[in-house]
Amino acid sequence: MLHKDKHVHGQDHGKSEKPSSGHDFFGRGDAIRAALDRRLPKNAIRALDVGTGFGRNAVFLAHHLAKGSHVWSVDPSEGSLKRGEDAVRAAGLGGRVTMVSGVAEGLPFADDTFDVTVTVMLFHHLVDLVPALREMSRVTRMGGKLLLADWAPTAHLLPFAIEHRAEDFFTARAVVNVLREIGLAPEAVQHPEWYVIEGVKS
Hints:
- Mean pLDDT is about 90; it is low at about 5-20.
- The protein has a single domain, classed as 3-Layer(aba) Sandwich (Rossmann fold), CATH 3.40.50.150.
- By secondary structure, it is of the alpha/beta class.
- The chain has helices spanning about 30-35, 55-65, 80-90, 130-140, 170-180, and strands at about 45-50, 70-75, 95-100, 115-120, 140-150, 185-190, 195-200.
- The chain has five helices and seven strands; from the N terminus they run H-E-H-E-H-E-E-H-E-H-E-E.
């Protein structure tokens, strides 16, 4: 199902998971980042992070991308952008990341701007997956890729700060099907509670 009625609305995914001591995707962070890191280009690139949240992914990308790369991180929430700026500054990466206000369904960038577009744990905050994926594809250059990570429906049992239902989560298969429909070649790495999908724009 690609469209759903959500009991939690909006895209400020920083609100649904409160930061706490040791909080790192409920202990799944190392595995999720490793799956993403293996798929990042090794040369200097322009990267887009969709959904700033607490700034964790912007910091991860700025740390792991090659020297000379730059990351743009977009979020509709001014609070998330401020938290992201603080996280980037604390990591000493201020010159490598630019925070931008915007929504996934209407990204404020020109066509073919980025080499890689990444989003981590955003989809379960969206009502409709298709517009966001179309936009992420639009701003990614030909030959570039989308790297998409989110929770699988079984993850609704995890102790989120805001309760989620299984229906809030898109399956990896649903994401892969949309990517194929919009002309990308997807490949999924799926675990019981999360997945990472790489889609190449060709």
